[in-house]
Design goal:
Elements (H helix, E strand, L loop, with lengths): L8 H22 L19 H30 L4 H13 L14 H8 L3 H12 L16 H8 L1 H14 L6 H7 L25 H5 L8 E5 L5 H9 L4 E6 L1 H4 L9 E5 L13 E5 L7 H9 L10 E6 L1 E2 L7 H18 L4 E2 H11 L3 E7 L7 E7 L2
Parallel strand pairs: 1-2, 1-4, 2-3, 4-5, 6-7
Antiparallel strand pairs: 5-9, 8-9
Bound molecules: S-adenosylmethionine.
S-adenosylmethionine (SAM) binds next to loops.
Organism: Lophiotrema nucula
Protein name: S-adenosyl-L-methionine-dependent methyltransferase
Keywords: Methyltransferase, S-adenosyl-L-methionine, Signal, Transferase
């Protein structure tokens, strides 16, 4: 018998792209949504139901691998991998000079006019515009005419996006060139280079939604919850609203608590430094959402030990944070995001992302009575939940 013809990897990938693109396309057509383009008719964010989002993920994963294979080893390094710093330079300029905000979405401008309203040197402006045009930020419908693309419009409309771009370029990536020197110089040291850096706005980014923990816990069985480092009450506000009988306390540093604007129903805000003993005794649940990843091990241990005097037998501790998945669980495409974040937090805080073995070790080192009851990995969410029970 003839051996079955084996599809090569690149053809298998192109088939994945083809089939899943059809799924996404039919969904958009059936729901009267615009087909993605660079035009400003494309909204800043397209939310898809989970089965369609899965097809989209499959496309992106396959494209990523196919692109790497087609570039080849040297091509990948020269023409893709090494380009990141240049992208950051133009991202910095776009955000800093508010270039996307300097003319309205429906108008056409020129480099000269854009430079003037953004307060830039014309030559610099031209170089930045040329670079970002190659990434579909701005469009050039005819030579010299500059219009908004879907991307620059998103930057203009979503002010948090522009702020995030500026913040990332200035505060995070500015330390990138020094990470390797630091690795060389301070082998394994735990000190944060910067503490209490408020990343609360990241809570809104895709994959970090609060909805999973809100919807998948029987909150009604608790009477009191303390959200340690709870910022402006991202989680507590919703808890207080949905479960009025629950007593919610949000704790954070004075500068964060004093900026809490509105009166949030059923939520009490309290100034507290988590490197000092926990003042709220005997709560049913202590929540730590995106707290530990900012700190090196010895600081995490300190935070945990400061909780002990407040705990009663069977107190619950919920850790909602990044847990590095076991090798091979994520696709290379998703893994890139996780590992990038890992380098960012090393750059900013000298902290590390931890896998489940590291978490187990860390809790044990803090105190043998911290017992992991369950680890949950909500689908489509970058944050996992580690349920810990106090065996005191
Ligand atoms: C990444 S944010 C997480 C905020 C919130 N838990 C969430 O899930 O969106 C870290 C929070 O820890 C707070 N924080 C930093 N150092 C602290 C300290 N020593 N005591 C209490 N809170 C602190 C920060 O102000 C910030 O609100």
């Amino acid at each position: 018998a003839m051996p079955a013809l084996q599809k090569s990897r690149i053809v298998a990938l192109s088939t994945t792209i083809h089939e899943n693109t059809q799924i996404v396309d039919s969904y958009l057509a059936e729901n009267g949504l615009p087909s993605p383009s660079f035009d400003i008719s494309t909204p800043p964010d397209l939310s898809l139901p989970s089965d369609i989002a899965k097809a989209k993920e499959a496309i992106l994963e396959a494209i990523d691998e196919l692109q790497t294979l087609m570039l080849g080893p040297m091509g990948k390094i020269f023409h893709e991998y090494a380009h990141t710093p240049t992208n950051l330079t133009s991202m910095h300029a776009i955000a800093k000079f508010k270039m996307a905000n300097s003319f309205p979405p429906n108008e056409t401008t020129t480099v000269a006019k854009l430079a003037k309203s953004a307060g830039m040197n014309e030559g610099d402006c031209k170089r930045v515009v040329r670079h970002v045009l190659s990434h579909h930020l701005f469009l050039e419908p005819s030579p010299g005419a500059i219009r908004h693309s879907a991307m620059t419009q998103a930057i203009a409309v979503v002010s948090l996006l522009r702020e995030w771009m500026e913040d990332t370029s200035e505060n995070m990536w500015s330390s990138a060139p020094r990470i390797v020197s630091a690795m060389e110089k301070w082998l394994g040291l735990d000190e944060p280079t910067q503490s209490a850096y408020n990343l609360a706005h990241r809570a809104a980014s895709p994959g970090m939604q609060t909805s999973w923990i809100l919807d998948n816990y029987s909150w009604d069985k608790y009477r009191s919850v303390v959200d340690v480092g709870g910022s402006h009450g991202v989680v507590a506000a919703e808890l207080g609203q949905k479960h009025p009988s629950l007593k919610c306390t949000v704790q954070d540093l004075p500068e964060v608590i004093s900026a809490v604007k509105t009166d949030v129903p059923n939520v009490e805000f309290q100034t507290y430094d988590f490197f000092t003993p926990q003042p709220v005794k005997d709560a049913d649940l202590y929540l730590f959402r995106m707290i530990f990843h900012n700190w090196g091990d010895k600081y995490c241990i300190d935070i945990l030990r400061n909780l002990i005097p407040a705990l009663k037998p069977k107190s619950q501790i919920m850790i909602n944070d990044h847990v590095i998945p076991e090798p091979k669980i994520l696709s290379a495409y998703k893994d890139k995001n996780v590992k990038t974040f890992n380098l960012i937090i090393e750059a900013c805080f000298n902290a590390k992302e931890t896998d489940i073995n590291d978490w187990t070790q860390l809790l044990k080192e803090a105190d043998e009575r911290f017992a992991i009851a369950e680890v949950k990995r909500p689908e489509g969410n970058q944050l996992q939940v580690i349920d810990v029970e106090w065996k005191g």
